[in-house]
Amino acid sequence: MADAAAPQPAVLAIDGGNSKTDVALVAGDGTLLASARGPGINAHEVGVDQTVLILDAVVKQAAAQLDDRPSGPLARHTVACLANADLPEEEVEHATAVQAQGWSESATVVNDTFAILRSGLPDAVEGLEGSGPHWGVAVVCGAGINAVGVAPDGRVTRYLALGTISGDWGGGHGLGLEVLWHAIRAEDGRGPDTALAGYLTRHFGVERVEEVTIGIHKGKISHDDLTGLAPMLLRASDEGDAVARAVVNRLADEIAVMAITAMRRLDLTALATPVVLGGGVVTARNPLLMSGITRQLAAAAPAAEVRVIDVPPVAGAALLGLDHVHAPAAAASRLRAAYGIARL
Fold first, then answer.
1. What digits encode the pLDDT tens for the residues 231-252?
2. What is this structure's pTM?
3. Residue 298 binned pLDDT confidence (cut-offs 50, 70, 90)
4. What share of the chain is helix, strand, coil (3-state, %, to 5)?
5. How far, rounded to the nearest angstrom, does the alpha carbon of residue 259 sit from its chain's CA centroid?
6. Of the residues 9, 29, 142, 277, which has the fewest C-beta atoms closer than 10 A?
7. Which residues, other chains included, contact 200 with Cβ-Cβ below 8 Å and sequence gap of 6+?
8. Cβ-proximal residues to 229 (8 Å cutoff; 6+ apart), any chain
9. DSSP structural state of residue 291
């Protein structure tokens, strides 16, 4: 008797962030068939064509793991959630380029905040009809910061999320700049003492903070190296450093105001609105940061339900794909279990 055919991918899920790109191939029953990780993307710097080349390399890594690769398109549907697809026209441009790769019969490209939102929302329950659309508010704070809100009736609200020029503050890069700003001022006497100065010099293996500043000025240290400094900020905050705690409190204010403003735009503040938080800075679950966020949300939207994602964002992209192909309810549970998490 011949062996049963290996399950084929129904969904190609892509989470393209600033620091990394994750890909997953998922069967229609939610089985995780393959996964791969590659470098991050920044479409604003490298353009759509180069972005797709980066994605294609990671997709090929995942496809190579399949026991029986399809002879035609790799999957039925692709969902690519990209950090730098910030404007609707950018989503369309990327979707056209993704579709042209022939990975799947159809493709959807959205901002990565939608993956965060879906990954933190309840799935459909087997046998329960009419459970309604997936809706809520998501805030991501990783290398950058952004938010999206979706109302029960499908209305969407978003931010430009283009950095300082669009009113943004926070995210790993912005927090890294804050660490350096406070550390250099502590060293030269313009600011209060802070443990951040010592953390920074040890991190870069130098004797003085000014060596880091000069290194950046001369191009010997990349601005991207600042993105990884957020953990030292949170650690200093945990240890009671006043400067670090002030920055963390400001970040809590920023995350909360993004979520609250999105809820107000969509008239959700009186509802039991899911507020989903994701990104490496938030998933560290720093006590001061989380308490500041939840306190402000409780005051502005008492019924809101705050949750931090416990599956990677690529799982959210895959869940969006399973929704698109009308997979059975049990598929979402199986996918979450593959990432070690039971259905929410």
1. 999 999 999 999 999 999 999 9
2. 0.92
3. very high
4. 45, 20, 35
5. 15
6. 29
7. 179, 180, 183, 209, 212, 229, 232
8. 172, 175, 176, 179, 180, 200, 203
9. H
